[in-house]
Design goal:
Layout: E1 2-3, H1 14-26, H2 36-56, E2 63-66, H3 69-83, E3 88-92, H4 97-108, E4 112-116, H5 126-132, E5 139-143, H6 155-165, E6 169-172, H7 184-187, E7 191-195, E8 206-210, H8 235-250, H9 255-276, E9 280-282, E10 293-298, H10 303-312, E11 315-316, H11 332-336, H12 341-344, E12 348-351, H13 358-376
Parallel strand pairs: 1-11, 3-4, 3-5, 5-6, 6-7
Antiparallel strand pairs: 2-8, 7-8, 9-10, 10-12
Bound molecules: 4'-deoxy-4'-aminopyridoxal-5'-phosphate.
Length: 384
């Protein structure tokens, strides 16, 4: 396969698999047990927390291990509503499905959820944000980069508005951490969600970073994670996550170097497909984007048709968020950006990783036109 669905998940790096196996074999004790077997695990947990904290630019005590970004997002949102009187949340319109669905449930329970609209190029409408970010909000939540379009959101500007209003800021940084440099202290956020499986780590583990001094209600009661997240720690997952961070921190390439290499491959893919397939339209082309993400449509060919055909030639991609795939609903984000529904259903996302090669990109530039060839004459591009 040529795997171009890395925004859905990435292949665990060999170092990650080794760290997980080692943990399962040699440090399977409960890190909360005071006996020697538990203490071996405790030491691993402390070391992994320190590695992850260093990579994310925060203090070890600011790291709360969770089962992934979905849980981290839920803890941020639900905790915000429990800790004070406010029943009003501000979120960005392009949030991940885990947030959108939660927002809908909460709205049904009388919580006011105000969405910062996205502009036609997929970024956030800062004028609208200015009007919505007021002291009466319990929390503002935005994403650092969108999982579908790859658009980088104006987090610094949102952080300044939150600071002025005295409202805590949560950032879902799941798609940008590992792909671009990140530092919790500099981010301006009070809470940040990260997931290990997007950066060559394992699934089912992530963190919620929480600024020192902030008190936040737990989702799961229990004494682990300083009473902030109950449940025996997923030590193999956490050790795998730490190995993924260590790999990025100490690899032969720095993160900016990898980002530049991946962006060059993405740009080559974008140019190659545009040249080969008339009617190719790239979504959010005018906005700053993640280096690895290309979201596009080939004229008006339905995404399912494209994906089926290219998979037969060994190219794996998706129509957008894996978490909301499988339905005939178009991407809510594209619709919010003003893309007509029928064209939004044509959206195909190609997302690269640091393991993607130039040779793979060259093959994809040949394979996609070959797979679509018979269809290219049939469809007319309605524009837009
Ligand atoms: N937020 C974003 C932006 C994501 O892309 C994802 C993963 N698709 C998640 C949250 C959920 O992460 P997890 O799979 O770790 O629950």
């Amino acid at each position: 396969w040529i795997y171009l669905d890395n925004n859905a998940t990435t292949a665990p790096a060999p170092e990650v698999v080794a760290a997980i196996n080692d943990c399962l074999l040699n440090s399977w004790g409960n890190a909360s047990s005071s006996h020697a077997v538990g203490q071996i695990s405790k030491q691993k947990l402390v070391a992994a927390r320190a590695t992850i904290a260093k990579f994310l630019g925060c203090k070890p005590a600011e790291v709360i291990f969770t089962s992934g970004a979905t849980e981290s997002n839920h803890m941020a949102i639900l905790g915000a509503l429990q800790r004070g009187e406010s029943r009003r949340l501000v979120m960005s319109a392009g949030e991940h499905a885990s947030m959108q669905k939660l927002a809908r449930t909460l709205a049904g329970q009388g919580v006011t959820v105000d969405f910062i609209p996205v502009t036609a190029d997929g970024t956030l409408d800062l004028d609208a944000a200015k009007a919505l970010i007021r002291p009466d909000a319990a929390l503002v939540s935005v994403m650092s980069a969108n999982n579908e379009t790859g658009v980088l959101m104006p987090v610094a500007e949102i952080a300044a508005l939150c600071k002025a209003a005295g409202v805590p800021l949560h950032v879902d940084a799941t798609q940008s951490v590992g792909k671009l440099p990140f530092g919790f202290a500099e981010s301006g956020a009070d809470l940040v969600s990260v997931s290990a499986h997007k950066l060559r780590g394992p699934k089912g583990v992530g963190v919620l970073l929480m600024k020192s001094g902030l008190a936040w209600p737990a989702l799961f009661a229990g004494s682990q994670e300083r009473n902030r997240r109950g449940g025996t720690e997923n030590l193999p997952g956490i050790a795998g996550f730490a190995a993924a961070c260590e790999r990025l921190a100490t690899g032969t390439e720095t993160i900016p170097e990898t980002a530049a290499r991946v962006a060059a491959m993405r740009d080559c893919l974008e140019a190659g497909l545009k040249a080969a397939i008339p009617g190719t339209v790239v979504f959010a082309a005018g906005a700053p984007r993640l280096p690895n993400t290309l979201y596009l449509r080939f004229g008006a060919i339905d995404a399912d048709v494209v994906l089926n055909r290219i998979e037969k030639l060994g190219v794996i991609a998706s129509s957008g968020s894996a978490c909301s795939a499988g339905g005939s609903e178009p991407s809510a984000l594209l619709v919010a950006m003003g893309v007509p529904r029928d064209l939004a259903l044509c959206a195909v996302r190609l997302s690269l990783s640091d393991a993607t090669t130039d040779a793979e990109i060259a093959r994809v530039i040949e394979a996609i036109p070959a797979a679509l060839g018979p269809l290219l004459g049939e469809q007319s591009d309605p524009g837009g």
